[in-house]
Amino acid sequence: MDYRRFLTDSSVISRSATFSDGTVDDVHFIKCSHLDFEKFMAAEKSSNPAEVERAKQRFIAAVLVNPDGTRAMSDDDSIKLTAEGVSILLPLALETSGIIKRADPGNAGGGEAETTSSASSP
């Protein structure tokens, strides 16, 4: 068995995202590291709603990339993400990292999700 399949790499994963105005565009991700995933999951358990929401933004920033694989936004920039941005990008970020599987892959704007690991969906 080739255990490299379990390591993060710089392979870019593209998905189509449908925005509220009906436009469709490609967005690009890399798989998350275990550390980024654990930070996200720990914050998801917080009783402070602001910490939970900030964790979503940080997770997106950790995995969202430009088509060439360079980071699309810094952690600091991610605080500027809109509610629409988070609702569209988070399900795609979780899916491309192998954390959830959307019931309707054609629904890039989110939708029903099921977990593919022991993690709970956001």
Give a concise summary.
This protein is an alpha+beta fold and 122 residues long.
Describe this structure in words.
The protein is an alpha+beta fold and 122 residues long. The protein contains three helices and five strands, in the order ββααβαββ. The model is unreliable at 110-122 (pLDDT under 50).
Give descriptors for this structure.
single chain; alpha+beta; rbstp2171; 3-stranded antiparallel β-sheet; two-stranded antiparallel sheet; 3 helices
Q: What number is the mean pLDDT?
A: 85
Individual helix count? 3
CATH level-4 homologous superfamily? Phage tail assembly chaperone gp13-like
What's the CATH topology name?
Answer: rbstp2171
Major β-sheet profile:
3 strands, antiparallel
Domains counted in the coordinates: how many? 1
The CATH architecture is: 2-Layer Sandwich
Instruction: Spell the H/E element sequence.
Output: EEHHEHEE
Query: What share of residues are in beta strands?
Result: 15-25%
CATH class category name = Alpha Beta
Q: Uncertain segments of ≥5 residues (pLDDT<50)?
A: 110-122
End-to-end Cα distance: 32 Å
Q: Could you tell me the number of beta strands?
A: 5
